[in-house]
């Protein structure tokens, strides 16, 4: 009986894996290959379905040196390139069909892996920044990030609770006016009580020091 369950599970994973191949080819023109390479595409592990870069990197780094991790915006899949084909094969064997829990939402998802010849996404990284824009890496320390998150009362009112049901892939907190998700606009007839929380003061203070 156990052998039969394992066999059925393997067949299910294979079906999902093949479906992911067809979806990637149909929508993006990216072809998966049957032989092992350094590069993988991981279905169900994308920004579009709630997987964070931090969580995915932590998962894939268990199996070798990650040279590239691309997570296209709003897509439910990501691309990973390892230092060697052996490392990619190790990750493929361990992660294909593996169930993981999305950290921020508590949802269980199953990963489906395929090999690709190379990791490439045309719109992943802009060629240049707009004039006047400066990027400061790691401006917020882990300790400051924790203080900011702790300063927010995420579930303190009914409007926020309703927003969480609407936006299952991210947490929100409204200030100023209520935001209407049905028309993507604010309702000026519904001002919200209170001002901006400590998080804005902390962030402004940090920016002024740079």
Automatic annotation (TrEMBL):
- UniProt keyword annotations, A-Z: Cytoplasm, Iron, Metal-binding, Methyltransferase, Multifunctional enzyme, Nucleus, RNA-binding, S-adenosyl-L-methionine, Transferase, Zinc
Q: Which Gene3D superfamilies match?
A: 3.30.70.330
What would be an example GO MF term here?
Answer: RNA binding
EC number assigned by the record: 2.1.1.229
Q: Name one GO cellular component term.
A: nucleus
Q: What is the annotated localization of this protein?
A: Cytoplasm; Nucleus
**What domain of life?**
Eukaryota
Asked if the keyword S-adenosyl-L-methionine belongs to this entry, the reply reads yes
> Taking every annotated instance into account, which residue ranges of this chain make up the domain RRM?
38-118
Q: Which biological process annotations from GO are given for this protein?
A: demethylation; tRNA methylation; tRNA wobble uridine modification
The family note in this entry says: Belongs to the alkB family.
Name this polypeptide is given? tRNA (carboxymethyluridine(34)-5-O)-methyltransferase ALKBH8
